[in-house]
């Protein structure tokens, strides 16, 4: 109940303080607005910084760097006089130096395997084929990739037929191609992605056990049906896995960019897709607050030890961070991978269906507020029962709670809060209250700098405009941002309040509402 109580309480408090004294209400509001301005400046800076880092990481030859690790001494001798300023080149030299000095401390990069699990419900072959093809086109050797297509039995016969067609098409492409059908109605499971992933993960563990294959140097990447990995992603993850001594206690988090079909999506969902993409860009520049989101990679050995993903939550990605943190007693972190995985913006058959599907998607994301209770009971318990030291966990808990409360309250307070002190004191002539809307407007003008930066950088990140669209579409890509206040209220505040209200009332969400994937011809 805590996130909802605080969110509703923050709104009510503005009215109560304004009724008691308009100056108190004005001060309270101004603190919130001023913090928004500070965050907007940070957003602008982190967006530019993140974009540049991603572009630099994309230009690195991660395949060559991974090959260098196989012969670290020779590679170091070849490269140590190189004055390259490419992304993390100095760190690469240091890694080669360390591996030369302590060869037994690092796994052989030539024996590193990738298991890529693609989850599906009832998506068509037009959605799934490009996702599998993107893995095929990776610079990482396909003969060291095991692809797993795990689909729901409740997806019906058509889904099973689609899976078999894809297996027939790609069966000779990878080291192996496994088909896994997740049975419907297993006990102890919600209807969602987590149970499907976990069922597939256990099948992978059985596969390795039957063939007496080592799981120690194997990385598992979970993908949604519409996810297209960047060609260099698997190499980048393998490189970080090999070079980090704490490799088994790391998750490897790419930058999720909702850009696959951005030109086809209607304006409201384009705004949401680009906004969420930039949130992920900003997050990758703040590793201390980074948590699992959507697709991510984790060592198979660690997944087996912690029994894979949760089968009891519809937000298995973010929840996986907390499960891992507690399982490893706090000795766990998420490592940012600055190579993107591309996903679809929400697109359904009609405009009305699309905007509805978008709301369903974000309310599912914001149901991550359920983790507040999961973390809170482990923070405020007896010392001997606490899985992570109190002072290590407290700031993480605070950021989790603050993030969900901010999602709910920020948009309506910024949009309408400036009028509350005045409207609650119509008989008063206190100038602070009457001038507050103007002050808020001025602060919002400065805060719009962050939005302008977002618009400019978004143009540079867009995929090429399809030939079917004329140049006038570029203008719409700019004009769409006038919808930002509306989308912020409907798709952030309302969706967050919806999720938090259900948690307050005990109306728990136990079904993963799949976002329909439509390919626009």
Brief account:
By secondary structure, the protein is α/β, with parallel strands linked by helices. The protein has a domain at 2-57 and 379-505.
Give helix and strand order, one letter per element, not per position: HHHHHEHEHEHEEHEHEHHEHHHHHHH
Approximate helicity band: 55-70%
Helix and strand composition category: alpha/beta
Quick one: biggest sheet? 5 strands, mixed
| Number of DSSP strand runs | 8
Average pLDDT number: 91
What is the overall number of helices? 19
Ranges with pLDDT <50 over ≥5 residues?
none
Main-sheet strand order equals 3-2-1-4-7
Q: What value does the Rg take, in angstroms? A: 24 Å
Instruction: For the record, give the distance between the C-alpha atoms at the N and C termini, rounded to a whole number.
Output: 45 Å
Overall spatial form:
globular
- Strand content range: 5-15%
